[in-house]
Each structure stands twice: as structure tokens, then as C-alpha cells.
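Supplementary Note 2. Why include the ligand at all?

Several targets in our set were suspected to adopt different conformations when bound, so apo predictions alone were not considered sufficient. For every target with a known small-molecule partner we therefore ran a joint prediction. The input for zinc ion is given below.
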Amino acid sequence: MRIWDIPPEKMCRQHLLGEHRELHAMWSIITNNKKAYAHHPETLRWKGKLKALYLRHEALVEEMAKRGYKHHTPLDPALATGKAFQDEFVNTYEEQVRILKERGCDCKV
Ligand SMILES: [Zn+2]
Ligand SMILES: [Zn+2]
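The joint prediction is reproduced in C-alpha cell form.
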């Protein structure tokens, strides 16, 4: 479970689509107060920041559209409350870049 802080245009297909899927799971966990993953560090850093999570989703969807992927699962903007920017990190931006480099995928980091 990870929402990256990497600009979507730098992400490979696998990581872009994978993050989009996990973002929907994260949104569901927080908006439905689900117990599963409720105390996961990644979940904790997004709690109270649904506006920021919403904006990250919009950025992912925009990049997906550029690459020709259709999107049929909009988030409810009425639920996009709280802080509009993310300032807590499980891994720093530099660590995230290193993690993606080590994957050996097509991410342009
Ligand atoms: Zn979506
Ligand atoms: Zn990648």
C-alpha cells in the first residue's frame, strides 16, 4: 500500500496504474472508516488530507488519459475535505526515487 509523491508523468505504466488502484483502496479505507490498514503508516499520513488525496487522484487520471487509459471510477468531490497538500512522508522523495530505481522498471526517476 503506497501513494507515491513522484510526478505521475515520470511513472511507468505498472506504477501509475498500480498507484491508481491503491489510491482507490486508500480512499475507501478512510472515507468508510475501515479497520483494515487503518493503522498502516501510509493510511495515517493521508488521514485528514482527503483533499490532497483527491488532487493526487486527479493528477494520476490526467496522466492515464494522456496515455489512452479510460477512467470510470471518479471520486466523490464532496468527500474531498481536509488539507489540500501532503507534508508527511513514510519515505522521503529521495528515498522514493531510490526505491523506484531499484525496481528496474521504466519509471523515469
Ligand atoms: Zn480513479
Ligand atoms: Zn515504475
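Residues 13-31 form the longest helix (19 residues). Residues 8-103 form a domain with the Endonuclease V fold (CATH 1.10.440.10). Comparable summaries for the other entries are listed in the accompanying table.
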